[in-house]
Amino acid sequence: xxxxxxxxxxxxxxxxxxxxxxxxxxxxxxxxxxxxxxxxxxxxxxxxxxxxxxxxxxxxxxxxxxxxxxxxxxxxxxxxxxxxxxxxxxxxxxxxxxxxxxxxx
Length: 105
Prior knowledge:
This protein has 105 residues and is mainly beta.
């Protein structure tokens, strides 16, 4: 069926009047109904921390994906944790399965 395009709006708000406010709006690519994933790379060292170093740490993982793969799934070899750029879930026998609460701790 038809999937309407997604849009992203970013707006910065502050009580300060000492800066210009810029708004960026654009259409998002049409979402796929299914993606190809590959288990690549280890989970983040500090997954509960929003750490800007993660941007650099994930580059080798992103480059290790095979051609045509949409998402890399992070794993310690026994457990699947998260997607490199997304949350990860599985639909098995009609039931949505996600990682248990606290999996990243």
